[in-house]
Amino acid sequence: MNRFLFLVLIFLVSPVVLVSAQVTPSDALKSLSENVDITTSPANPGPNTPVTIKIASYSFDINSAQITWTVNSKVVKDGTGETTITTNTGASSVPTNITINIKPLNSSSFSKTITLKPVSVDILLEGYSYTPPFYKGLSLYTNQNTVLLVAMPNITNSSGNLVNAGNLIYTWSQDNTVLGDQSGYGKNSLSLTDSVLSQPTTISVVATDLNKTFIAQNSIYLAPSSPFVLFYENNPLYGLRFENALLNNFSMTDKEINIVGIPFYFAIAEKLKNSLKYTWTINGSTTSAPNYNSIILRQGGTTTGTASLGLQINNPVRVFQSDTKSININYSSNTSL
User: Against a cut of 0.85, is the pTM above it?
Assistant: First the structure.
């Protein structure tokens, strides 16, 4: 009799239990809140400037939601699908608190809050160009010359004191190109030299603290100016009469007059080195006057008339720095040239 061995395989099957996490209403609201984007335009608004604030979401239909905007505890807009407001920032470092209450359709409401603390930075400039003593105007940025730009942040701390400008990070850009070698911690000044082509340029600066809790930015459009010449009388009694430039027609009242040509905004380096070239003319003819910025006119003859006095100033180092100025001098029989 054959014996068969039956092997009985017994499979023990355990039931599979599918566990799903339960989403509570509070979790759902948190998810909706986290999926609301808030943008401002401009991104870093300055003091006392209009700013547009917009909200958007891809997790629910925000255009059907009831939205209430509150600025500094005052409701400024309320309605369905009101996704945008425009308001004004306050003074420098004064916060503007904005609360947005959002109630999606068939859901509970939630709030988003942002604080705008506007800060600003001024850009001061000084050209390395010549101006006479006690001149109250600005030293301009001129052709082929150098200009110094200084960023002056208007930022206060929690105590209301101005933040030290040397403790900030500065990013300088020229025509949207970052000037990496002149940017960095404490670098609130920028030295820029005009090219031979003398093209206008836009300089921007962004100032921020180490933690980037604020961002202040500004830009300035620079177009090199041209230097020019003005005439003044060097009076033996009063000295240089800077309060009264000699323009167009000028009448001599004395037998002798000392006229000085002032080279406004020529490069100060060549002016201090006496490298500028002065060429005086009378009625179009070059005089034998030395290479000085002044000329003495004396009485001569007994006629009456008008003479044209001219001066050309050239900078031999910076060839595009030059100007020619002329005036008509009226003289009588007692003061003829």
Answer: no
